[in-house]
Amino acid sequence: FARTRLTGAGLSKLAQLELRDYRDIQGSYGHIVSIEMLEAVGERYWHSFFGHLNRLLVPGGSAAIQTIVIDDAFFEQYRKGTDFIQQYIFPGGMLPSPAILRQLATDSGFRFERCDFFGADYAETLRRWRARFECNLAAIEKLGYDSRFLRLWRLYLAYCEAGFDAGRINVVHLKLVKEK
Questions:
Q1: Which of 14, 33, 56, 121 is packed most tightly, with the most Cβ within 10 A?
Q2: What's the burial of 95, exposed, middle or buried (CB within 10 Å: 0-12/13-18/19+)?
Q3: What confidence tens digit (pLDDT) does each residue in 102-128 have?
Q4: Cβ atoms 131, 161 nearer than 8 A
């Protein structure tokens, strides 16, 4: 999908898509985009992730990161346990908080250039996904998914929607620039 869009926009010679483990990427880049994978890295490897970004970027290069975050006020409580998402959807996953992201970035030699939150939009997206899911139950069941799967995904979509609506979780676009 992304390659088709890139080609369709006439940008395939200007950008390279890497769909692999970030730790396996080598070389030098002017810009890097990471979309919703930081959550899957796990807290133990966040410093490694940001350090690797720093090594890959040329001085003055930028990293655009989209990630889901948990409100700073809830981070310490959250990190001590395992929530529904960590237990059933993304085992080993962990949401950073905005303050943690800022600290990781600055510790790794980045300057925060931009930070845009859009959790309310994400809540609306989840509402629409949930409505489409409900409209397609028969097709989903025909694929072999059972009632347990359906319940799990209903809860997942509603749980996330509520988290974004309440502001407990958010989604952010960061633009980080590697110091020269």
A1: 56
A2: buried
A3: 999 999 999 999 999 999 999 999 999
A4: no
Among all chains, which residue has been given the structure tokens 């970027």?
57
Give the domain ranges of the chain. Answer: 2-118+166-178
In this structure, which topology does domain 2-118+166-178 adopt according to CATH? Rossmann fold (3.40.50)
pTM above 0.85, yes or no: yes
What residue type is 68 in one-letter code?
I
Predicted confidence at residue 23, as pLDDT, reads: 92
Of 139, 146, 65, which Cα lies nearest the Cα of 104? 65
Residue 172 pLDDT exceeds 90 = yes
Beta carbons of 86 and 94 less than 8 angstroms apart: yes
